[in-house]
Design a protein that fits this description.
There is one protein chain. The protein contains one helix and eight strands, in the order H-E-E-E-E-E-E-E-E. By secondary structure, the chain is α+β, with helices and mostly antiparallel strands. The chain has one domain: Jelly Rolls (Sandwich). The relative contact order is 0.27.
């Protein structure tokens, strides 16, 4: 009797833990690389089935960053989140952000889908 209760408890825990682990998937990480002498990078990508693409770039405090996201088609439901090295969100728009960077380190640009359709996008990042 005690073993069956333990097995039931173990099964219930698995049913909770597995979906939580799937939700915490960090996405596909890509390092943004600027061509020598260039302050901008243009990235063309695709995103599928409620997934996430994460673009990482190193920048310094006080630099100005400009990020523009153009979904293809234009009405594709995507979200954009720009994260500072300490995990705070910088933007409040799904189409882009412009501003001075608050600290040195790796900034993460998260692009996610809202629905299950595949969509393409162009991401432009400029650091001045």
């Amino acid at each position: 009797m005690r073993k069956s209760k333990i097995l039931i408890l173990y099964g219930c825990l698995l049913m909770v833990i597995i979906p939580l682990a799937a939700q915490n998937k960090k996405g596909n990480f890509h390092r943004v690389k600027f061509e020598r002498g260039s302050a901008s990078a243009v990235i063309k990508g695709a995103i599928r089935n409620w997934s996430e693409e994460v673009y990482v770039l190193e920048a310094r405090q006080g630099q100005r960053m400009i990020v523009n996201l153009r979904p293809i088609p234009r009405d594709a439901d995507m979200t954009l989140n720009i994260e500072t090295p300490n995990g705070k969100s910088l933007n409040d728009s799904d189409s882009g952000w412009t501003g001075k960077l608050p600290q040195n380190g790796d900034y993460k640009i998260h692009i996610t889908t809202i629905h299950s359709k595949t969509a393409r996008f162009t991401l432009e990042v400029t650091i001045k």
